Amino acid sequence: MEVADNSGDKLNIDPQKPSNSSDPGAGDGKARDLERVHRLKNGDRKALEEIVKEYQNSVYRLAYSLLQDREDALDVAQEAFLRVHQAISRFAEKAAFSTWLYRIVVNLCHDVRRKRMRRKDEFSLDQVADERDESGDPPLQIADPKGESPSEFSAERELERKVKEAMESLPDKHRITLILREVEGLSYEEIAQMTEVSLGTVMSRLHYGRKKLQEILQPFL
After folding, report:
1. Mean pLDDT of all residues belonging to the chain
2. CATH of domain 2-118
3. Residue 93: what are its φ and ψ, rounded to 5°?
4. Please, are residues 154 and 144 in contact by the beta-carbon 8 Å criterion?
5. Which of 72, 197, 198, 216, by CA, is between 20 and 30 Å from 209?
6. In this structure, are residues 58 and 24 in contact, taking their beta carbons and an 8 Å threshold?
């Protein structure tokens, strides 16, 4: 995917490409981020290209974790980097650049989810997958190529569906906190900065989210 900056030039976003660093927000990564931020504030377009290459995987992964839709996640990733370019002069550098960037992603995902709620005729991928074919018969069960039987494959898919449904059933604030911690591996401090709440609130949301997931999924585990 390509991102056009204010000059009209385009930057390529490819979440399949490896990032330059396995942990762009840690150690030397923070100093490197700060150096790029200063260059970008001074109009260096190359700095934006480097930021995209560094963070495209983690931005896309976070957006996909929150939205569960590839196209929506790509759109959010594109918009997030556009917002970075447009708002970099307002980045006060009090928090890590990665925290600021991820906050932009989370807010954009909130917007997408609100729009989804207003679209009453939306069908989820799960609903489409569960529909019967034109003959009225249920879809054929095909064994997994790894050697699983149709029943084993079906049970695994059912568990995946239940986990997804359980995550979706959580209030946004608890689901987002869980994803940031369990999927993205962020520290409590980073989550607190990103979501603009206290450490105690982060811990409380994680406790509630984990407890609710265990309650919902207990019959399937």
Report:
1. 79
2. 1.10.1740.10
3. 65, 20
4. no
5. 72
6. yes
